[in-house]
Write a structure and sequence with these properties.
The protein is built from seven helices and no strands. It is mainly α. Helix 2 packs antiparallel against helix 6, helix 3 runs antiparallel to helix 4 and helix 4 packs across helix 7.
Length: 212
């Protein structure tokens, strides 16, 4: 039986498109705000489609899950780097946001992979109830992720728009609340993943002591 070419799975092809769109957005950010945001949000939107494709075609892979997570984290990080240049007074807050986002998701994915999960979105349903709702309720996950990304995108656009419409400020306020909530969830990610890793270490040490 021929071995499947994981790199050519449909969800991974969508993932490559996301990466290309993200790099186009990064390139355009200094000069072309609207095309940049279009490419950035389209890349983010495709995140939902690769997940659907993976489940529908039975093509979920650890490689795809890792690429998906890294694309999300790197895209947000690069947008925050650009915001740090536009709003230097808030650089420290952007740096904290970057560190929290990357550290929490990486440790969570790493602990999930060690425990045998194919994705950081596959969790033990007996775990933290907030994370359980976050990952098992698709509307909640979509609203939290979309609101977080829109908050940063609006900050970027406001720098380039002379007189933003009033409803955009209301939208930014709403997205700001969502962004704070998602930051809180990232803290939970970090704590829960750290506890999982410590439990795995303790179990491994106990196993090694029994074999000695």
């Amino acid at each position: 039986m021929a071995q499947d070419n994981i790199f050519l799975f449909v969800p991974n092809l969508i993932g490559y498109a996301r990466v290309v769109l993200a790099f186009i957005a990064f390139y355009l950010m200094p000069c072309c705000p609207w095309p940049a945001i279009f490419c950035y949000l389209l890349s983010a939107l495709l995140d939902a489609f690769d997940g659907h494709a993976a489940r529908a075609l039975n093509q979920s892979t650890k490689f795809g899950a890792m690429m998906d997570m890294l694309t999300d984290r790197c895209a947000t990080m690069c947008l925050l780097v650009n915001l740090s240049l536009l709003y230097p007074s808030y650089t420290f807050l952007f740096q904290v946001s970057m560190c929290l986002d990357i550290a929490s998701h990486w440790l969570h994915l790493h602990s999930s992979t060690i425990q045998g999960s194919a994705s950081h979105k596959t969790i033990d349903l007996s775990g933290n109830p907030i994370l359980r709702i976050y990952y098992t309720s698709k509307p909640v996950l979509f609203v939290m992720c979309a609101g977080n990304e829109l908050f940063f995108c609006l900050l970027y656009l406001f720098y380039h728009i002379e007189e933003p419409a009033a409803w955009l400020y209301w939208l930014q306020g709403l997205c700001g609340i969502i962004c704070l909530l998602k930051s809180g969830i990232s803290v939970l990610h970090l704590i829960t993943a750290s506890q999982n890793m410590a439990a795995l270490d303790a179990a491994e040490r106990e196993k090694n002591m029994k074999t000695q």
